[in-house]
Amino acid sequence: MPPPDHTRRLTQRDIARLAGVSQTTVSLVLNDRADAESRIPAETRDRVLRVIRETGYVADPAARRLAARRNRILGVFTYEPVFPSATGDFYHPFLVGIEECAEHCGCDLLLFTSAPTVGGRKRVYHQDHRLRLADGCVLLGHELDREDLSRLVTERYPFVSVGRRDDAGGPVPYVGADYPAAVKRLVARTRALGHERIAYLGHGRGPEPYVDRFRGYVESVAAPLRLDPGEPADMVARVLAADVTAVLAEEYADGVALTDLLARRGVSVPGDLSVITLGDPTRPAPTDVDFTGFRIPRREMGRQAVEVLTELIEGGEPVQRLLPCEYAEGATLTPPRT
Amino acid sequence: MPPPDHTRRLTQRDIARLAGVSQTTVSLVLNDRADAESRIPAETRDRVLRVIRETGYVADPAARRLAARRNRILGVFTYEPVFPSATGDFYHPFLVGIEECAEHCGCDLLLFTSAPTVGGRKRVYHQDHRLRLADGCVLLGHELDREDLSRLVTERYPFVSVGRRDDAGGPVPYVGADYPAAVKRLVARTRALGHERIAYLGHGRGPEPYVDRFRGYVESVAAPLRLDPGEPADMVARVLAADVTAVLAEEYADGVALTDLLARRGVSVPGDLSVITLGDPTRPAPTDVDFTGFRIPRREMGRQAVEVLTELIEGGEPVQRLLPCEYAEGATLTPPRT
DNA sequence: CCCGAGCGCTAATGCGCATTAGCAGTCCAG
DNA sequence: CTGGACTGCTAATGCGCATTAGCGCTCGGG
C-alpha cells in the first residue's frame, strides 16, 4: 500500500532535534511524566514546549494507542442506524447525551458504521471490526445481539449498554431506565383515579424493555390481563372484549394505533377508555393526542453511560444502574366512566 | 500508564504459530497480497484463514494504521454540536447521508467531539487533536474557521467541506448547495406571478451561504433592495416601509419571525405580502405556516461529501461540486394584490 | 552435472510513541 | 579523597503490523 504521506508529518524525533534533547524527553514532557524517576528541569521543559507550540506538533494517536494502550476514543455501536429515520429519531437524545459527556471528558467518538448488516442484523464482531481502536464502547439499540454481549464479557472488553440487559455469560454493565418502578407508579396513579380493570397491551416478553415493563405491571395488579397487540383490527376487538377501563400500551406506537382505531369505532379516549403509553415512540407515530405515560431519560442515560464507561476504562468496577423515568402528564388518563 | 490489557489479545504472531507459518505470511494472506513477488499456495492460505476464523482474530487497527497509513476511518468535524438541540436538528440530515455512505463503503466515522470550545468557537487544530487517526475528514458547520481551512489545505490533509467555501490559501474541496441557481429560480417564479418589487431580507454577506443567496438575488433583479433583519420590530417596519409585494428571507427563521409579526399588525401572508424562505431552518422556528422556498439537499450533500472524500483519499483530485436545491411549494407565495 | 529460473516462504526492519534501565556528572558526608 | 546519593538526561526496547530483501529449495535445459 503506497503511503499517502501528506507532507511528511512531524514526529517526536523532529521535536527532539529542534529542542536539542532526546525523543524520550519530548515524550516525558508531553505526558507530564515529571515523577521521581525522571525529572525535567523547568528550563528544558519550557524549551520543548516552545518547540511543540511553534511547530504545532501533535502526537500520532495510532502510535500512541499502540504504545500506551490508551486513546481517549470511545466507540459507539448502534444496532439500528445511528442517525435513523425509521426509528423516528428515538435514538437522537441518547446520542446527544453521549456526545455531551464525551466532549466534557475530552473523548472522541468512533461510530462503528462499518459493521455490515448480515441477515437483517448488525454485529459488533464482524469481519475486521475496529473495536480495539477505541478504549471502550457504548452499545445502543432496542435489542442487542447476545453472542456479541457474551463475547464482549468474556474478552473483558470495556463496554456499557444503554438499557438494561440480562446476563450474558456474566453481568452486563448498563445504564438503563427503571421501567418496573415507572410502570408501578403509573398503575398506582391509575388505580387511585378509580380504575379497577387495567389491561396490558403488548408482548410482555422478548427484549428486556418489554419484560421489565410487563413485570412492573404484573407486580402491581392483583389479576394481570395481557392483551396481544397482533393485527391492528384484532387489537381493538380484543381490547373492547376485555371490558377494561384502562390500557397500558407497551409501545407508544401501539397506544397511538389503538386510540386511532377506537376513535373510528366511536370509542373515545379517555372518555370511554384511558390509554397510557409506556415509553417514548420508537417508531414514527404521528398523532395529535397527548398521551399520559412516562418519559425515558434518554439524554441522561447516554450521558451516564459514557461516564460509567470512562470509569470502567480507568479500572473501575462494572456498574448496573437504573435511572428513574419521569411521569408525563397527558390527556388520556381520567377517572373511569361511572 | 498501566496497560489495561484486556485478556492479552491475539496477534499475527499467534496466528502464525498456530498455522505453522511466519507472521509475514499471515499478513500477506490477510491483505490478499498474492502478487508476483510473494505467492502463497492455496493450501497455506486456507490453513491460515482457517486459524483466523477459528480464533476470531482481527488486526489491531492502530498498528495497522501505523504501519500502512490507511485506516478506513473518516473523521467528522462539526463546528456546531454534532447532535444539536439549538440548531433544531438542521445538521441531522447531513449526518444521515454521511452515515449512509460511510456504511456503504465500509468506513467507520470518528466524531471529533473532543475539540474544546475556545472563545465560543471550535477549532479542528486544537491541542492534541486526533486528525491523523482518520484517513480524511468531513467538515460541517454554518461557518468554518478560516485558519483551520488554510492549514488543512497547506498540510494537504484530505478533507471535504459540506457547503461551498471560499479559497483559503488554495481551493477548498466541497460539496455544496447551488444557492444562486435556486434563488434565481425562485425569483423568476415570483416575477412570473406578477411581482415586480421583490426585496431581500438578510445580511447578504458573511458566511458563504448568505453571500451566495444574495448573489443569486442580485443577479436576477434589476433593482436589488436589501433589508437588514436587525431587531424584530424594526424588521417589520422596514419591510412595510419598503413597499414591496414579496420578500425573500435569507434565513428560514427570519421568514417565520417576519410572518408572525406581520400577522400581529394585521398584515396577511400571502394576501398582502408574499414571503419566500431560502433554505431550511437552522434555528428552531416553530410555525404552522407552510413556507414557499427551496430545500437544501442535505442528505445528498452528506452522502456525496463522503464519496468525494474517499476518492480524494484514494489519490483522486479535489472536487468542488454544487448540488441543485429542490423547489418547495408552499402557501406563502401567490400573485400580488392588484 | 551444473546453472539459472521460478517457487514458497521468512528474517529483518520501521511506522511513532511510551517506558525501562541506566549512564555521566555533581555534591556532600565521612 | 572516596563513595554514595541525587540530578538530568538518553539508549534501547517493544507495541502489532506491513513491507523489503533475500534464502533455500526444486526443476528443467544445456
Automatic annotation (TrEMBL), chains A, B:
Q: Which CDD domains match?
A: HTH_LacI, PBP1_LacI_sugar_binding-like
Organism listed in the record: Nonomuraea antimicrobica
Report if keyword DNA-binding is assigned.
yes
UniProt cross-references to InterPro entries, sorted A to Z: HTH_LacI, LacI/GalR-like_sensor, Lambda_DNA-bd_dom_sf, Peripla_BP_I
**Which UniProt keywords are present, listed alphabetically?**
DNA-binding, Repressor, Transcription, Transcription regulation
GO MF, one annotated term: DNA binding
Top-level taxonomic group: Bacteria
What is the protein's given name?
LacI family DNA-binding transcriptional regulator
Name any one Pfam family assigned in the record.
LacI
All copies of domain HTH lacI-type, residue ranges: 10-68
